Amino acid sequence: MNEVLDPLMRIPGVRCVVLSTPDGVPIASAGNVALEGAPEAELESGRSADALCGLVAGWLASLGPSLGLVAWDLPGRIVLRSSRGAFVVRRGPNAFLIAQLEPGAQPEDLRLPMEGALSRLQRVARRPRMVAPPPALPSRNLPTDPASENADNDVLPFANDFSG
Questions:
Q1: How many CB atoms are located within 10 Å of the residue 77 CB?
Q2: Three-state SS for 43?
């Protein structure tokens, strides 16, 4: 996931980027995910990413009913501005991409990079797995196995001993 999140972290003013499921479970994060005012124990245990994803999931759940009469669906890009920074949320098919910005950073600067990050994320999700799982059973062609000489011929090892 670093190949998706790291390019967003290079944009000036981005404090952190988190990839989350729609129900608020963090998948991956990059940068300083610390929420201001959070205790040190939460910062060290990684619960601040959980809090950020939960905040966004709750926020979007409350937006749904209020926008239900105006729009067919939730918007794909949502910005929450405050005096301490901004949150930019880009909805994907099965995940939310959340960026927390420093005060003074412009959310419009992330419009195109977040679109590209979601496209890369979808390509990564569709990429075939290159690592094959280990075999369930040991190989039958072991050098110490007496049947290994005849394994390619599907002949039992004692079948050649009969002469008649």
A1: 15
A2: helix
CB of 52 closer than 8 Å to CB of 33: yes
Closest CA to 78 of 95, 97, 93, 94: 97
Please state, in angstroms and as integers, the Cα–Cα distance from residue 60 to each residue in 15, 74, 78, 91, 115, following that order: 21, 8, 9, 10, 19
**Domain parsing of the chain, residue ranges:** 2-124
Contacts of 53 (CB under 8 A, 6+ apart): 18, 20, 21, 24, 25, 26, 96, 98
d(CA 105, CA 101): 6
Tell me, what's the pLDDT at 135? 66
Q: What percent of the chain has pLDDT over 70?
A: 66
Q: What is the pLDDT of residue 34?
A: 65
Compute the CA torsion angle 25, 84, 113, 78 (nearest 10 deg). Answer: 60
The tokens of 158 are what? 């004692």
Look up the CATH superfamily of 2-124.
Answer: Dynein light chain 2a, cytoplasmic (3.30.450.30)
Q: How many CB atoms lie within 10 A of CB 145?
A: 13
